[in-house]
Design a protein that fits this description.
alpha/beta, 6-stranded mixed β-sheet
């Protein structure tokens, strides 16, 4: 390792506020990056189960699937072992899945525990850092569906859980929830999305913009894999001047892809219009700087597609950004993030909410709650892109042997990568404390990468997979 990190003068995030890309000069010293706070990701728990157990088989009681609900002190302990206070669709899903376990979370537990009640009124507070996996007593299922908004079950809880478990989230109600749950129970029967027609859509606003790097490090690397597979006969890439909203929607309606990959800015503006800002949070911004919102996308019935969107806040927003304090409060990045936190708060973004609740809904939406930085996409020492784990998750593992591999399982190595960078961050802090000032930039960089990976989330059930390829 070199003694000094290749430190950029400034950084950008993949956010478009209606006028420009958010970017700032990197400060010479950032106490935020050196803060020695407890991070759930530091768990060394191994995700791998014993060799004879297939982690993809969530129906195996040694693996398991369950639901996490907000605890409810109005109910008896016995009732809290069930989903009696959940909507009928959630109760129906639990019943269809062999009366799967119901776990509860309460703020007093912090991020490291879930509570499991039992019919006899007893309960266990179960560690999520090194969980005993399964559906039996004292166990936490490997696959967890959080049902509730991020104001009820915080994003920080999802970040912590997915370091050792396979986690997704739903925050739908009424007809939208029925649409998703009915499709999930019936495995999207009667709805067609084509696994042989993956679509990759990437916006490139020039070499001085973060979209240039995303188009190469994410969309480009994934397209190399996809384009090398002749079985994917209807594959399509939309790039350069063609990467507008109209071409995206036209390709979606024509091809009905089972896998959609998009890279672009996420809309984070206009900063002076609360209504539009809230309604557009995280929506893709096309080559013409126009937002591709739910109104356009309603022309497409996802019919069980999985969408990965690499854009700022594509999955949602939080009431306080985890990056708060990274850069000066007067900078463009802090201004954008603080405004999002104030206006949108902790919420799932409008686009995934609409498509997961559509008449023919998405299977899953994968994206970031926070922005991602240009600095975290490349190794600062040799400039090599650092997206191979992500690309492997979204192609190699989803398409592995053309079997139906759950999205939660597919993404596990991304979260392991987050844990590795958190560990490296602690090493850098030890170096700072030992009198090595050059480690300050390493600490900042490593924590930034770790948080980038950790804030990638699944909206939808973690057991869903691409349709099988005949």
């Amino acid at each position: 390792m070199t003694d000094e990190i290749n430190r950029p003068k400034d950084v950008q995030i993949n956010a478009w506020n209606g006028e420009r890309t958010a970017g700032d000069v990197l400060p010479s010293r950032t106490p935020w990056a050196q803060s020695q706070r407890l991070v759930p990701a530091l768990s060394t728990a191994q995700l791998a189960a014993p060799q004879e157990i297939d982690e993809r088989n969530w129906s195996d009681p040694r693996i398991g699937w369950g639901v996490v609900l907000l605890d409810n002190d109005v109910l008896s302990n016995s009732d809290r072992s069930t989903a009696v206070d959940a909507p009928p669709a959630i109760r129906r899903l639990i019943e269809k899945r062999s009366n799967a376990p119901v776990l509860r979370w309460r703020s007093s537990l912090g991020q490291g525990f879930l509570r499991r009640y039992y019919p006899d009124g007893n309960f266990h507070d179960l560690s999520t850092l090194a969980p005993k996996v399964g559906t039996g007593k004292g166990c936490i299922p490997q696959y967890l569906l959080l049902y509730g908004s991020p104001t009820q079950l915080p994003w920080a809880l999802q970040y912590a859980l997915q370091m050792s478990l396979f986690v997704g989230r739903l925050d739908l109600v009424d007809t939208a929830l029925d649409h998703y749950v009915d499709a999930l129970i019936n495995d999207w029967q009667g709805q067609f999305s084509d696994p042989k027609a993956p679509v990759v859509w990437s916006v490139d606003l020039g070499k001085n913009d973060i979209t240039w790097l995303m188009a190469r490090a994410v969309a480009g690397k994934l397209w190399e894999k996809i384009d090398g597979n002749n079985d994917l006969v209807r594959r399509r890439r939309i790039a350069d001047t063609s990467a507008n909203g109209s071409s995206l929607v036209a390709s979606l309606t024509e091809l009905s892809p089972a896998l959609l990959i998009t890279t672009s800015h996420g809309m984070t503006g206009p900063l002076d219009d609360d209504v539009r800002l809230k309604s557009w949070i995280g929506a893709p911004v096309d080559i013409d700087h126009k937002v591709v919102d739910g109104t356009q996308l309603q022309m497409w019935q996802p019919s069980g597609a999985i969408w990965y969107s690499h854009a700022c806040c594509s999955a949602g927003s939080d009431s306080v950004s985890r990056y708060k304090g990274l850069l000066p409060e007067s900078g463009t990045i802090s201004t954008v993030l603080n405004r999002i936190a104030t206006v949108a708060g902790a919420a799932i973004a409008p686009v995934p909410r609409a498509l997961l609740g559509a008449e023919k809904p998405l299977r899953a939406f994968v994206g970031h709650v926070e922005p991602t930085f240009d600095w975290t996409l490349r190794d600062p020492a040799n400039k090599q892109v650092l997206t191979h784990v992500l690309c492997s998750a979204l192609y190699d593992r989803l398409y592995l042997r053309y079997e139906r591999n759950p999205i939660g399982w597919a993404l596990q190595k991304v979260y392991r990568e987050a844990g590795a960078f958190y560990a490296a961050w602690q090493d850098a802090i030890a170096g700072i404390n030992a009198g090595e000032p050059s480690m300050r930039d390493f600490a900042l960089y490593r924590q930034l990468v770790a948080m980038d990976r950790q804030t990638l989330v699944i909206i939808g059930d973690p057991t869903v997979s691409l349709p099988g390829i005949a």
